[in-house]
Design brief:
Shape: globular
Order of helices and strands: EHHEHHE
Distance between the termini: 35 Å
CATH architecture: 2-Layer Sandwich
Number of helices: 4
Radius of gyration: 13 Å
Strand content: 15-25%
Strand order of the largest sheet: 1-2-3
Structural class: alpha/beta
CATH superfamily: Barstar-like
CATH class: Alpha Beta
Helix content: 40-55%
CATH topology: Barnase, Chain D
Largest sheet: 3 strands, parallel
């Protein structure tokens, strides 16, 4: 039987000023070579994840990134909705 460990990933959105900053955070925990650093790649990574992702100060994504921040949150929510193994907590 293959054991799959759940990893907790903490992201503090207060420090994310650009979309590149956000992708830097994701790339830091994504164990995938060649992460595409775009919203499609983000969805792909999250749709296969079994991790717990906690985003502190999630409202800063919208404050700092505007419409792109809303899109990031939508992609994260869609991935969590379609992947029962992924847990996302927005604080």
């Amino acid at each position: 039987m293959k054991m799959s460990w759940i990893k907790r990933i903490d992201i503090n959105a207060r420090h994310i000023k650009t979309e590149d900053d956000f992708h830097d955070e994701i790339e830091g925990f994504a164990d995938i070579d060649g992460y595409g650093r775009n919203l499609d790649a983000l969805y792909d990574v999250l749709s296969e994840s079994n991790d717990l992702i906690v985003i502190e100060n999630a409202d800063y994504l919208q404050k700092n990134l505007g419409e792109r921040g809303e899109m990031v949150l939508r992609v994260i929510s869609d991935a969590a909705e379609n992947n029962d193994m992924l847990t996302v907590v927005l604080k």
